[in-house]
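About this split. The held-out portion is used to measure sequence recovery: a designer receives only the structure tokens and must propose an amino acid at every position. Recovery is the fraction of positions where the proposal matches the reference. Here is one held-out target exactly as it appears in the evaluation file.
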């Protein structure tokens, strides 16, 4: 295991000792979210401390007795810095798992977080749907997978994890869910590696439309679009081509700082790429008859994907929580390099828009679609390069102001329970100092608006 991988996160956790309770909690959290690997014998900083495999096996037996139902897993012995470690692999489960004390946990960043009543109901409803991405594709055979695309994926994956991929190619494709155990392509396999995925899944492409104005309508009732592109192929190619088309249509402005001229695109590149990648990763591929749509208007960019929010995710917790409808597709694109760090995309998208002086993204969640809208208008001067990042609380405050027009200290405290009033006051003062918020009124009558 290399140093570049020694960082806990959504898909990886460390335990220095084989504690049965902590193992059980992590098993349940991984199974209820996107799966992951638990490394036992490594401390929280990623330093190998070593472990006795026999003790791990005993602790694992005790941990499984605390999971309801038991969580399927497999483990292997490894070595790091000359010390023995154990890697415990857990896949995302189609079942809802809890601990013997009734708690239902999910993985949030590098932590295991218990869910509350309504969140548990939402997660259970999603689990009952099953895992469409593992279903076999009728009529598809191993020959329908593109060997060049597979080799490209392997190369990117080995570079990202900084070690060779273990096992044969067929074993890897089966392990990642691209092939069934008997070698038949799955939905995930065709979408990631298919020669012609839309032959089997016609709705899996993307449509880009550029409109001349701020509405879809032109003069005399005619369509108001100036360009329309249909993009197909495996998911990696769809992301690449969609980004290229949007970038080609993006206006580039400039600001002069001292003697230097700095170019500024119409939208922050990261925010656009993240919106496209999220749409491709998280759309509901069971829904037929509609593709992902990117609509570019004079004042905004809309990225809409079929399927509502997955699992326990809501508009209220979308910044904090992480849950994938298609964990194997997400994992594949993560190793491919299209996802920088799992679970951090939405909050960075918000921050990049605010840093560029634009409004925060607008999210529209409906039962059968999810839309991200990026506006190109300037609400304040762009923040200087190198300015410290905003924290999650500040991003929540900005999203709240976007939806309600303003925020008071009391409303901010309700938004961030458990945080001291002084910390929250400093958060808002920092946003005022950056030139993002404007403070209105004094004492009890104080509230904040976007500057």
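Reference sequence for scoring:
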């Amino acid at each position: 295991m290399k140093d570049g991988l020694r960082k806990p996160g959504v898909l990886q956790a460390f335990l220095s000792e084989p504690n049965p309770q902590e193992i059980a909690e992590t098993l349940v959290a991984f199974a209820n979210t996107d799966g992951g690997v638990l490394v036992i014998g490594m401390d929280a900083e990623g330093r190998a401390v070593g472990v006795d495999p026999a003790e791990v096996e005993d602790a694992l037996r005790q941990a499984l007795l605390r999971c309801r139902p038991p969580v399927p897993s497999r483990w292997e012995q490894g070595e790091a810095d000359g010390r023995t470690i154990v890697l415990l692999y857990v896949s995302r489960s189609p079942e809802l798992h809890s601990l013997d004390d009734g708690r239902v946990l999910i993985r949030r960043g590098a932590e295991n977080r218990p869910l509350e009543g309504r969140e548990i109901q939402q997660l259970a409803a999603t689990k009952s749907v099953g895992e469409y991405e593992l279903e076999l594709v009728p009529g598809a055979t191993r020959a329908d997978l593109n060997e060049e695309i597979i080799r490209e994926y392997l190369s990117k994956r080995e570079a990202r994890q900084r070690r060779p991929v273990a096992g044969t190619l067929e074993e890897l494709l089966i392990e990642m869910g691209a092939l069934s155990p008997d070698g038949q392509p799955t939905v995930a396999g065709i979408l990631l590696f298919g020669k012609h995925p839309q032959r089997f899944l016609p709705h899996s492409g993307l449509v880009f439309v550029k409109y001349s104005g701020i509405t879809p309508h032109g003069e005399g009732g005619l369509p108001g679009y100036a360009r329309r592109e249909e993009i197909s192929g495996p998911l990696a190619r769809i992301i690449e081509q969609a980004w290229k088309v949007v970038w080609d249509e993006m206006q580039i402005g400039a600001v002069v700082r001292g003697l230097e001229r700095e170019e500024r695109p119409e939208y922050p590149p990261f925010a656009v790429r993240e919106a496209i990648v999220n749409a491709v990763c998280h759309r509901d591929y069971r829904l037929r008859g509609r593709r992902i749509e990117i609509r570019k208007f004079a004042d905004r960019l809309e990225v809409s994907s079929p399927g509502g929010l997955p699992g326990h995710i809501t508009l209220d917790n979308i910044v904090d929580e992480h849950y994938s409808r298609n964990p194997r597709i997400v994992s594949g694109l993560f190793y491919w390099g299209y996802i920088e760090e799992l679970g951090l995309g939405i909050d960075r998208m918000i921050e990049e828009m605010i840093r560029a002086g634009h409004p925060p993204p607008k999210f529209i969640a409906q039962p059968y679609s999810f839309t991200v809208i990026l506006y190109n208008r300037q609400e304040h001067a762009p923040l200087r390069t190198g300015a410290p990042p905003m924290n999650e609380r500040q991003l929540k405050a900005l999203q709240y102001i976007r939806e309600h027009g303003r925020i008071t200290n009391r409303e901010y405290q309700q938004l961030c329970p458990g945080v001291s009033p002084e910390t929250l006051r400093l958060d808002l003062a920092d946003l005022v100092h950056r030139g993002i918020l404007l403070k209105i009124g004094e004492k009890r009558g104080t509230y904040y608006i976007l500057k």
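Annotator remark: The radius of gyration is 24 Å.
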